[in-house]
Amino acid sequence: MRIDLRNQLAEGMNNLQAWRNRYSKTEYGEKVLLNVFYRKYSTHFMWDKIQNSFQTKMFGGNKVLWNDFNEGFSEMMNLYQNQSTKTQPILLQLLAEQSKNMVGNVSYSGFASKIMGAKQGNNADIEEIEFTYLHYLLNDQLILMWSAFGGTGLSKIDALAQMSGVIIAETDMTKYETVENIIGQLCTGPYLNENYNALPPL
User: Fold this and answer.
1) The domain containing residue 145 runs over which residues?
2) What are 6-17's pLDDT values in tens digits?
3) pLDDT band for position 1 (cuts 50, 70, 90)
4) pTM of the model
5) 70 CB-contact burial (10 Å; exposed 0-12 / middle 13-18 / buried 19+)
6) How many CB atoms lie within 10 A of CB 4?
7) CB 183 within 8 A of CB 140
8) Considering only Cβ atoms within 10 Å of each terminal Cβ, which end of the chain, N or C, has fewer?
9) How large is the greatest C-alpha to C-alpha distance in the chain, in angstroms?
10) Total structural domains within the chain
11) If you write DSSP's letter for every residue of 147-171 in order, what string do you get?
12) Do 150 and 159 meet the contact criterion of CB atoms below 8 Å apart?
């Protein structure tokens, strides 16, 4: 993969360590998962803006929206930060009333057994929750990067190739769950496979 995610992975590990220190063992796993869905709902709610980076010109070619990738990524991060402040007040209500809703490729209710296991001190469940957090932290950041590349004039396929070094067949990349899955397979999964080291048992 061509994108360096060391800073993002370090940020994620530091967050996990801080939450381990802040929360009791019985509440820790659930708090980490809340953060997973806080990020995922924020990405979900701004999906139209993410897609909007890929604009075509009337007579062919792709529109250039910013001077370079860094400007675009900064713009996408600002949009994400603005959205996350709107997500935060409604998150618990969303998870309570719509726990089975798929956000990307996962639902909050799908983690019920892991939350229970974490509360009971099952370290395998705790590690799986921590890995889930890191995976989606990196994955959703990569989606913002993908969108930022789009605003430099790259197509969806070319933006993905710029990040992963892999050129895939033309495919419909209009849905969050599809893009999440593709980036997870080509970028996030391989990166974590090489660089992830579990924290010591809680």
Assistant:
1) 6-53+72-195
2) 999 999 999 999
3) low
4) 0.95
5) exposed
6) 9
7) no
8) C
9) 61
10) 1
11) HHHHTTT--HHHHHHHHHS-PPPP-
12) yes
Contacts (Cβ under 8 Å, ≥6 apart) of 11: 137
Q: Mean of the per-residue pLDDT values for the chain?
A: 96
Q: Token pair of 134, please?
A: 């890191």
Residue 73 amino acid letter:
F
Note whether residue 67 is domain-resident: no
Place of tokens 């010109």: 57
Is 125 a member of any domain? Answer: yes
pLDDT score, position 58: 82
For the segment 139-169, what is each residue's pLDDT rounded down to a tens digit?
999 999 999 999 999 999 999 999 999 889 9
Please state the rounded mean pLDDT for residues 111-132.
Answer: 97
Residue 154 tokens, joined = 């790259």
Average pLDDT on 52-65 reads 91
Q: Which stretches within 3-122 are classed as H helix?
A: 6-22, 25-45, 47-51, 69-87, 91-97, 112-119
Q: Cα torsion at 78, 46, 154, 132 (round to 10°)?
A: 90
Does residue 60 lie in a domain region? no
Token pair of 126 as six digits: 């705790």
> Structure tokens of 152?
């430099």
